[in-house]
Amino acid sequence: MALVKLFSGSQSRYLAQKIAHSYGKPLGSLTLQRFGDGEMAPSFDESIRGCDVFLIQSTFPPADNLMELLLLIDAAKRASAGYITVVVPYFGYARQDRKDKPRVAIAAKLVANLLSAAGANRLMTCDLHAGQIQGFFDIPVDHLFASAIFIPYLTELGLENMVFASPDVGGVSRARAYAAHFGCGMVVCDKYRKRANEIAAMQVIGDVEGANVILVDDMIDTAGTMCNAAKLLMDKGAISVRAIATHPVLSGQACERIANSALVEVAVTDSIPIAQKHNKITVLSVGELFAKAIRKIHDHESISTLFV
Questions:
Q1: What are the start and end residues of each CATH 3.40.50.2020 domain in the chain?
Q2: Looking at the predicted structure, is the pLDDT value of residue 200 above 60?
Q3: Annotation: CATH topology of 4-145+287-306
Q4: Any idea which residues carry the catalytic annotation?
Q5: What percent of the chain clears pLDDT 90, i.e. is strictly above it?
Q6: Cα distance between residue 231 and residue 299, in whole Å
Q7: Rounded distance, CA 95 to CA 108, Å?
Q8: Rounded distance between C-alpha atoms, residue 303 and residue 16, angstroms
Q9: Fewer Cβ within 10 Å of end Cβ, the chain: N or C?
Q10: In the CATH scheme, what is the code of domain 147-284?
Q11: Nearest in space to 267 (alpha carbons), one of 251, 247, 294, 297
């Protein structure tokens, strides 16, 4: 069986080290040279000929993170790696997954094409913005779910009369899966947007009177939707409102909004590094989850046992 080698892009090294520690193998050595104008030139400092290579890098902004990953894939292919798996805990540009109006790009499909063209043999990711993005790839996609981390955490909290809520109609299936696991109710916060990141109106579909509500989403960007939903749910009679979201994008004044919101707590993963931390934000690691998935893929075993 081919030797496993784990490598990390420059912006995901904090998470790659956790994955490598859980896997029980040190990260491989590589060099990222930068020219005066910022152009990147990555190179592997050790032989990877015939190896199962796992390249770990989330593709959050800036676009350099995606470009670095593409260059690493190309370098691994040209160094005769046996099999190249790109481990992308946060798959950026996933929100542009369809033509919702004329003359727009489908960025998620473009990124899928780029990764394949660069030479990736497999993609491993977590909580895509839309599950159908897997169909944009002509290579195998291992789509992990952060529910494997959030469900044990919520169980430990021991909350009574839990109700799960989706902050928008698009996330109903995500919230329903949690509600089904815990055998409790679900509500939907239906929102109307005039433009991206700006909510015009929101209403709650369902009853939250006397409930401890858990808002479920795949990411928190500006936190506007989550904070508005929390206020609305409290106004409708909820005892408390918490949120779980896999990817903490937290752009702009997101942390400040969370601090001043009705939210008791926001639990996120470390798929994206958090620049500003607040006592309302709890970070749970996906390192062990990805390490287990890497081991199963290398051993040609099913990863379905990792799903909760």
A1: 4-145+287-306, 147-284
A2: no
A3: Rossmann fold (3.40.50)
A4: 191
A5: 86
A6: 47
A7: 7
A8: 19
A9: N
A10: 3.40.50.2020
A11: 247
